[in-house]
Every structure is written in structure tokens, then in C-alpha cells.
Amino acid sequence: MIEESVSGYKLPRFEYHRPADFDKTVQRYPVVIVGGGLAGLTLAADLSTRGIPFILLDEDDTVGVKGASSRGIVYAQKSLEIFDRLGIYEKIAEKGVAWSVGKSLVGKNDIIYEFDAAKKSPSIQPPFLNIQQFYIEWFLVDRINELKTGEIRWKSRVINIKAKQTHTCVEVETPEGTYWLEADWLVDCSGLASSVRERLGLETFPEKGTERWCISDIRFKKDLPLERWTWVESPVNDGRAVWQHPMADGVWRIDFQMKLDSDVEYISRPDVCEERVKKLLGHDEPFELVWVGPWASRTHLLDDFRHHRVLFAGDSAHVFPPLGARGGNSGIQDADNLGWKLALVLKGQAQESLLNTYSQERRPAAIHNTNLASRSVRFLSPQGEGQRVLRNAVIALAKNCDFAQAMINTGRLSTAFSYQNSDLVAPE
Ligand SMILES: Cc1cc2nc3c(=O)[nH]c(=O)nc-3n(C[C@H](O)[C@H](O)[C@H](O)COP(=O)(O)OP(=O)(O)OC[C@H]3O[C@@H](n4cnc5c(N)ncnc54)[C@H](O)[C@@H]3O)c2cc1C
User: Fold this and answer.
1) Where along the chain do its domains lie?
2) What are the DSSP calls for 274-287, one per residue?
3) pLDDT tens by residue, 87-106
4) Whose CA is nearest to atom 29 of ligand 1?
């Protein structure tokens, strides 16, 4: 069934089906995935292509987050290569907007830095492709259903976990009551506020930034180049940053940097947002607000992405500030790293210790992403006089000096991470 969401997009609604587990003694499954966001669905599609059966449990019955924006929009080349292997890249390419040129600007339209990532591209996929996150999730669901190797159970919320040395017991709440199942391997992909992590008492050391942004997803007809533009200091936003990105369906993501600790309700009011957009597009340019909402940057990181027979992927394991489009891309790449390892262990072709390399490889990738995204936050929201003086000196020099251009950091976009300290990497 397809239904119109609050933001005017037509999204699918998937049916809940009564699982056979209600009528049997507790069943054991090779892999149970908690959460059908980017990480969980990518893993499920990956296992499907390898013939590994799984159960994916999601508390919701649709893709994306109900009542919210698309969240992620930028997908990096490495993720696009993974989607190509999983058989959904063609659909993504048809719907989304491929791009490679990014520009950083000051004043009205003064370019201080410009890149074209296509010039050094090693792949047949484009350097970046923008598309609303829920479309990717939807294509993944369709692919998983097409391959029929595992089962997605909608309206199935994990409410209790017991981690044992040899397996994990999982209690699932559904519209018709609760049941237990067991997993040889449980993969928690239930996102930022993972209740699995909480049940297991695992600490993530969260931190929340003070800077505030307001997302505006806007549809307009003005003919703009399909590029990423970032104003470091925009006169239409009281000297604060603005990002402009094209995405599917003729919608543009325009992020406005707000004052530190702004009142999030006020800055997201449609009339307040419209005034900002008019200043940017011009007062005579007609536009439609598709979605408006605030965001603040936050970080968290698990000490180990494996706990007995439970593995953590995506936002459940790590969260970075969105500058640089790393969160979803990283969850997709976690799933890509984990899929083949789980498959080899379950087929008896590798020892269980292979799965330790998942955390050895993906945790440093998460730290790398956190560091780079935090640097972008510091550039766009300098904290204290020292950082501000340095940032302004870089901007002043960037027009004429290459070395200063390299220091302009308006959100370095994610690239593939190379693993150094894994048991799978031979010492040099
Ligand atoms: C404003 C913004 C812009 C962003 N832009 C980008 C971008 O351009 N590129 C990018 O790569 N990333 C971006 N991100 C980050 C990206 O959206 C997230 O990193 C990504 O959604 C994480 O995916 P996930 O699968 O780990 O978790 P989620 O997408 O949060 O999915 C978790 C799933 O688990 C389910 N669930 C939760 N609890 C339970 C439970 N107890 N039982 C069963 N199911 C459960 C939920 O229903 C949900 O489907 C952005 C984020 C924001 C906020």
C-alpha cells in the first residue's frame, strides 16, 4: 500500500503478518537484525545475495522516519558501489541526482574554493549521488523481498534481550502480543537510541553540540546547477553558513546555520523559514516548503562493536555530526564489512574470530569520521576567539592561496577508509 506522508511524499506501508513463532516452541535463527534503516536493510540485502537466511525486525511499517525529513541525502561512491553489487544501483541512479562539483562561497556569490571530484574518480559510479534516504530504504526492501532469502517482520519491536555466550534471546512485541526467539548472531541496527544497547548496559559516551541548523527541503523551478554550494558566511543568513544541495523529485535541501542554542521551535516555524528562503532565492521566486526541521550535531561511539554474539552497526554503534554526510554512508559500509564475514562463519568456512575484525576495522573508520565531521563543525562554528581568528584568516587567504583553499572545510564528504590495524591486514 502507498500512502502520502506529512511531507507530501508517497511512501509504502508494509503489512504485519503473524509469525509462525507464536505457535511453536522458541525458534533459533542464524541471523536476527534489529532495525530496518540503512544499516539493517543493507545487511539484509547483502545476506540475501549470499543465501544466508535472516529475520529482520522493525518496529515501524514503512521506510524513513514518520513525520520527519528524508534525513540523509548524499551517498558517496563507496556506498554506490555497494548498492551496485546488491542490485539496486540502477534504480538509485535513475531517481537521484549525480554530482561532482562543490563550491564554497562567501558574501553573496564569491567562490573561495571549488572541487570537481569526477577528475580523480576511480569508479564507474559517480563521486556522489543525492537522493532522499527513504528511497534507498524502499529499493532495499524491494530487493530483499525479490531475493526471498530472509524475512522482514514489520510492526515487530524488540523489547528485551538476553545475551548468552552462544546465542542471544530476543523478546519481540507485535500488534497481537509478544514472543521470544533466539539468534546465533544478533545484529543491532536500531539507530541512535538503540534499546538493545541500553538493555545490555553498553556505554556510548554521548556529546551534543551547541550549534543549531534548520533543514529546509524546498521545491522550486529556478534553474540552478546540480552542484553542492556552501556559503561560509552568507549575507542572507546574518553572516552564518548555508548549504544548498539538489536531490530527487526537483527538491533542494537548504540548511541554514542558526545562532548557538537557538529556540528550535521558533527557527523551524514555516513562516520564519519562508523569510530565510525568500532572501536566498529572491522574493519573486515561487517555492514550496516540503519539510522544515531543526538539527543539532551529536556524537557517540561504542567501545567495541561486538558484545558476545551481538554486533552493532550504523547509528547504534556510532553517531557523527551530519557535516560531510558520513552517518548513513558509514552504516552502509559497516553492513558491507559484516555481511561476508557473517556468511563465511555461518557456512563453517571461517572461524568465529573473523567477526572480531569487524570492530577492528569499522571502529577506526568511525573515529576517522567523527574527527573529520567535528573539524567541519569547528570550521563552520568556531568556538572561541582563537578558532574564529584562524577561520577568518583562512577565508581571507583562500581566494589567492592554494594552501589556504585546502583548509576550507565546509563538510568534507566521505571517502572509502583503508583498514590498518585489523587481523586481516598483514604487517608491512
Ligand atoms: C539532518 C540529517 C542529515 C543527514 N544527512 C546524511 C547524508 O546526507 N548522508 C548520510 O550518509 N547520512 C546522513 N545522515 C545520517 C543518517 O540519516 C543516519 O546515520 C542513518 O539514518 C543511520 O541509519 P541506521 O540504519 O543506523 O539507523 P536508523 O535509520 O535510525 O534506523 C533504525 C531502524 O531501527 C528501527 N528500530 C528502532 N528501535 C527498534 C526496536 N526496538 N525494535 C525494532 N526496530 C527498531 C527503526 O524503526 C528504524 O527503522 C543525516 C542525518 C540527519 C539527522
Assistant:
1) 2-97+129-206+300-376
2) HHHHHHHH-TT--E
3) 999 999 999 999 999 998 98
4) 37
